[in-house]
# Entry
Amino acid sequence: MSSIIPVSTSRVSSLLVTQSLLSQIQSNESDLLKIQNQISTGQRISLGSEDAPAALRAIGLQNLLDRKSQFKTNLQTNQAYLGATDTALANASSLLASARGVAVSAADGTSDATQRGAAADQIGNALQQLVSIGNQQFNGRYLFAGSKPGQPPFELVGNYVRYNGNDQQLPSIADLNNLFSTNVTGNQAFGAISTPLQGSVDLNPILTRDTKLSTLNGGAGIAKGSITVTDGVNPSVVDLSHADTLGDVIDAIERNPPAGRSVKVDLTAGGLNVSIDSAGGGNLAVLEVGSGSAARDLGIARKTNSGVTPIVGSDINPQLSLATPLSGILGSRSSAKITSAGANNDLLVVAKKNGAAYDGLQINFVDDGTVTAGNEQVTYDSNAHSVTVKIQTGATSANQIRTALNGTATFAADYETQIDAHETSNSGNGAVAIGPTVTTSGGSGSDFDQARGLTIVNGDQTYQIDLSNAKTIEDVLNTINGAGASVLAEINSTGNGLNIRSRLSGADFSIGENGGQTASQLGLRTFSATTNLDDLNHGLGVHASGGPDFAIQRKDNSQLQINLSSAKTIGDVLNLINNDPNNQNLSNRVTASLNASGNGISLSASSGGGTNPLVVTKIGGSQAAEDLGLIPVGANASAAATIGGGVDSINGRDANPQEVAGLFTSLLRAKTAVLSNDLPQIHRSLSTLDTATNSFNAVQAELGARQQNVDALQTQLTNDTTSLTDQKSQAIDTDIAASITDLLSRQSALQAALKLTAQISQLSILNYL
# Structure
């Protein structure tokens, strides 16, 4: 605020005095206007230029206040969703208690058919109401659909309930750097998706130039940074910070060798091999730069003085990805590189199938002066595992050798010759010279049997999954998920296999073969040699008697009596049958194996082994053969064997179906068991219902805790808003008491200035005489 301008008492002109007084009046009026604005608006400044530091503080505080206001709105909105969810779960809880009571009343074995029918109807009504609760909406959003909009999450499909939602959480911002989940998924609340059927096979994909660095080392990737490649004298720093794939790494290393040297990086199925030209001598090493770990992460770090011996990299264990080719998930193909001096002449011989059986092929180039370029001769000896190519040294090109080898039918049946794309701009037109014998190596595993696919049974439907056109893991997942089998297929969390989950409650779910090995190779077959007997029949297991449990009548009318007391797995059962001392006559032998299609145990025997039927019968009332699926439920003997192709076969049923463990499955099983008066199944369904209800109650408790947390967050936001508002007020708001005092002072100053001006305007020359 400006000060009071004094009036000069010396001899000055009237004009100067008048101008000084007018300036004083204008200053006072300006100050009065400013003070009046401060009092009327409540703000000390109206423009940032009036107090720049305070204005900056106020802007920052206002931004925080705006964000806190939005957070508070988020919490209020999501508290409403959580409240609606809590109400829905409370209604469901009452339904479950009622349905359980009905099932318990039917489990005493005294109810007649009419009473059981009425009880089943009550359970069915509770099930329908539970589906309706699961499909409740609030403000247009399905409460239990996860992140999937536009479709009711639960759907009655025949005698089953299908979940169309997903398992995704919907996060919301509760405060700065504070996310909280705003929903409960249908799977969390009701148990709508089965536990993952985890692939039991480690699918370890082979490395390619396109392998992403982020998938290496089990998904940990490699540290971004640089490595040093040295021959012991001349170090070369190779920047890998921008590398995305192994191809980028290989190219970067080969483009930046130690001065005057050449470095080659070969890609194997599991790692990298680094070599340096031998002519220059020295000690090849790959070192870290500073505290980095890129060389170790790539498996090629070496400090020792090993001369020019190539660095053989360790396994860098890539994860599965959607782009992983199926040709490389179960092993690798044997190969050999043939290099010649000069350019455009490197060749690669690659086996057409995975497996170590293709290792050890010796490849020789000879020049005996009998052939000319373009007329190469190939001799392939599969027994000696060698191939000899007669060439004209210095004239025969790599392309001509490739044509000759691939044109030899016996060789081309097992191997393919390619122009090595790793040699820069390799056209294959360069001349090839004779050299040392090259031997194929690196083959492992086996080929993926995708031609026949696999079989998924879910509910009353069987789905044949055709993978014949699949090229990558993504193709496999899309084919399975798009088959309409009500399953979810995905890469597992560790990236070394596949998981499949069912979303059809109340249904038996299984994965089996379609005449091949696809399901077993993926580790997804639900009935295998390693399946524990205790897991069969939804965990009811196999009831062995302690003595002979069942008899297999052979075609020659002799019997095999099988005692399962020592068996723990399906494989043990197969071994007991196949290794039975009375089952070693080849002409009448009964062979036990897994069904070639679907699941179950298969018993087969030559149709010419006798005139009697192949049949399985119980011994002493033992339920074991029934539990294994060899005898129909409630029967004493197996169904008649099928005859075809000179073989009699008994194909047992799948005794290890999977299911969605949840409320809907328990109620559906209970309804069916009550109708059929199946007391063991009623008791089982009550047990699974109790387990599912405990999980349901835990979700309710967690939801209550979440609501309490939201209340606490709302209180905290209110306190934060009050504090921030106070800080903003201190920065820019008016001190009313001080401003009023100042206003009165300015008014007095203005009045004095006006009075003095009036007096001065009345002066004449007489006042100065």
About this structure: The longest strand covers residues 331-338. The mean pLDDT is 89. The first helix runs from residue 14 to 41. The two ends are 39 Å apart (CA to CA).
